[in-house]
Amino acid sequence: MWKKGSSEVSEMKEEFVGNKKEKPIQLSARRNFAGAIIGDNWVATFMVHLDCLGAILTMQWNQQPIKVPKGYCPSVKDVQEALRISWRQKEILKPSGDSKVSRAVKVAYHKFFLCLPAWRCRSMTLSAEMDPRGLWLGDKNEEVRIEERHVKSLEQKITTEKVSPDLVVVDFVPQGYTIDDGTKMLDPIGAKTRKLRLDAHVLVADRYWVREILSTLDAESVNVDAITSSYSTASELLTDAEQAGDTVVIDIGARNTYLGFHNSGSLCAIKTVEGGADGVIVGTARSLHQPISDVMATIGQQKFSLYSSDAGSAIKDSLFLWRTQVPMIRNLDNAAIPVTAGLFNRVWTEIDRQQAKSNICIQNAVVIGDDPLAVRAMLAILKDKTALRCRWGVAHNHHKHAESDSSGYAHMVSLVRKHGREQESREELKTKASAIHRESAANKLIEKGISALMAYVGKLKGERVNARRRLVLDTTYSESGDIQK
User: Could you please report the per-residue DSSP string of 214-265?
Assistant: First the structure.
């Protein structure tokens, strides 16, 4: 079993090739990353290597399904059990038959990332302001030059005073800082002002739920270095053109479809639409008068060819000729489109509503999802009924892997690229192992919880007449743990 923080990596044996002695290339453990991604009804754990050019080499990918009734989200116990099973499936890497390495290699990793499911995250748009002049105001009209400490203090204020203590901030996306004259900027450091205002889009999750997941990983000797959501990781899939404009990411999960709205590359709103890949598959099977199991088996057999690239370039691949030559594949696509029309109408209603509410103009759509059949059907409808530039959100610049078509694989690639690039400035570790770590996410979670609780209690002691409304959203889903057994 792998131990995080192990101080050694098994040595690779030197081999003689002709008259020369060659050493196999050894990947630096400083660029090895592990993590876990939680979906609608599955959990996946992984270990990858991120090279200096951003390419991903997948060393381990273990996906564990969660068996829950239709229409229910998994309980925390379901997720914990699937997470344990998936993480314990990891194995020591063994050399292939033609490899020059004669011994198995035990791999160490540098950091561990956790991606929370979209159905556990909630959205808030918050704002806060501060006087950077401190207690000693002096001249009331005197302006102060903004420093980094002012920005950090304002961000801490917005997360401790504006967020309820029973929630934890998962993603923090600053929308802009405003100074006295009304100028709005993304980086206020160096500007002179008497007051500084911050508007931010914050994604939160239940503190108890996150703490239970962290405790499960801690029991497996894993320290979490970064926590994020599937909404945030999807932003790394956007191209430069999509980041420059307004883009919606449509993530078709098993039970729900999740919309992430991006304004100039920054996540500004999220929405959840009822219905997902499960409904598309069931409806398609009924329209074809075929058993659901047969339809799912056919999709699974053809995923390899139908998920190999995005929809724009896929038709150029000879493997995609199967769609027209094999009747079952052609019938699946044709039958899935009318079934997906209802889901598209609900998605488009939310897009129209968000455009009217926030004055954004959606120009691009990126579609990803748990099942390629639902993704292809959604893309076909978008291209036929809208003027959006739409494409399949397939991750690029990664080495081919047998599980590249798995649920959440694109999220994994984006997650590693987003957080794996944030390297410390210290020199390469001599041991090439993960012996040094930053403060774990669990400790940060506890400290932020104490700060938030103290701020919340302090506000209650003030006995204000109009108490602040709690920023807690009621859940709109049922968990499998609620079922009477």
Answer: HHHHHHTT----EEEEHHHHHGGG--HHHHHSEEEEEEE-SSEEEEEEEETT
The owner of tokens 């002709």 is 18
Angstrom distance (rounded) from CA 481 to CA 78: 8
Give residue for tokens 């020369």: 20
Which long-range contacts does 322-331 make (Cβ < 8 Å, 24+ apart)? Answer: 328/298, 329/298, 329/302, 331/288
User: Is the pLDDT score of 479 beyond 70?
Assistant: no
For the stretch 177-195, pLDDT in tens is: 998 888 888 889 888 888 8
pTM for this one?
0.76
Secondary structure of the chain: what % helix, strand, coil (to 5)?
35, 25, 40
Residue indicated by tokens 């000729």: 321
Helices 372-385 and 277-288 cross at an angle (nearest 10°) of 90
Name the strand (E) or helix (H) holding 33. Answer: strand 32-38
pLDDT at residue 223 in the model = 92
**Would you place residue 203 in the very low, low, confident or very high pLDDT band (cuts 50, 70, 90)?**
very high
Rounded Cα–Cα distance for residues 286 and 278 (Å): 12
Cβ count within 10 A of residue 444 = 16
If one compares 24 and 287, the residue with the highest pLDDT of the two is: 287
- At 337, the amino acid letter reads I
Tens-digit pLDDT profile for residues 213-250? 999 999 999 999 999 999 988 877 888 899 888 999 99
> What Cα–Cα distance (Å) separates residue 313 from each residue in 241, 316, 374?
18, 6, 18
